[in-house]
Design a protein that fits this description.
Layout (H helix, E strand, L loop, with lengths): L1 H4 L10 H32 L3 H4 L1 H20 L5 H21 L3 H28 L6 H8 L2 H20 L1 H22 L14 H5 L4 H20 L1 H6 L7 H48 L3 H15 L2 H13 L3 H29 L5 H18 L21
Amino acid sequence: MTPSLSLSASSERLPIGALLALAMTGFICIVTETLPAGLLPLISEGLAISPSMAGQMVTAYALGSVLAVIPMTIATRGWRRRNVLLLTIVGFLLFNSITALSSHFGVTLVARFFAGVAAGLAWSLLAGYARRMVAPHQQGRALALAMVGTPIALSLGVPLGTWLGGLMGWRTTFGLMSALTLGLIVWVLVKVPDYPPQAAHQRVSLGQVLTTPGVRPVLAVVISWMLAHNILYTYIAPFVAQAGLAARVDGVLLVFGVAALAGIWLTARLVEPLLRQTVLVSLATFAGVSVVFGFVGNLPLVIYLGVAVWGLSFGGAATLLQTALADAAGEGADVALSLNVVAWNSAIAASGVAGGVLLETWGAASFPWAMLVLIALSFALAWGARSHGFKPGARGAGKPAAVGH
């Protein structure tokens, strides 16, 4: 994948080492967030709490991300960029270490909350940082590479962490996450360039960002698309159980993760010339998968093929949506991307509630039809945002693309 990403249209090389450092930061964000899900029995036994209480470690992390991302992003706009990036990584080092050592559940929850704060700030920073490293015509490809840590974490990182937890204990697993952050700090210092803060006269307020044409339609697509995606992803186990794959959930998720990696590679080639078309085709493809799952989602072969197509259509979603949002926001890109974190995590939280209601009321067979309604809404929003948000033609046609700060 790397060679195809490393060349721009004018044969300029992308700063691969620096962008992969950002990808590793995203990898640590995702694994730190989801690791407790695979270690719940071990954590509940180790802290003498119920599995449901142990599950609140994920809730505390998500809460920290949602509540802190906007104020933290605004508060650090006057800092040099690498200092902010290092702050987030040191946050993971500190709070994962506390999680590994703590024997008190209250202390553990506080550590998880502040690890979520670090993640929220990181997610608001990564896209703008990746865009700033390269020329405008390379920004989409740079962002695709910087986001590659997410599907790797979801497909490989979490299962590996769960396996290591069973082998060496859950505390050791969080300790290994801290060791990874130590290596990442050195990596960032060696490879990632520093940039000055955004000039005061260029800083855009939260209200101005929200009223910038194109920002709200993109955020609406983020919410509806991620809600549809996460209803199925969160409750994938009961859904595939209809096809007799209850014991093969790990294999199904592996298929999704590999396909999502392919989706990122494909998006890296399409985001610059065909961002709008790629968004619309991705949404239409997911809608088609939803229809197929609705009619024949009880067949194992259909599940595997459908999950592969779903992963392919979803892999580039973060790149596409963050690129469109940052382009629309211009000088307010950092604040807009912090709003993206809130929208994304809120959709994840809402999907847990919505999926649970659907499962209890109509069963897992209702998921595809609910997803279809949400994806149809996403498609309509993206289609309508032709003038601002999801513009036709190549990115930056007619004017330079905005660089995130």
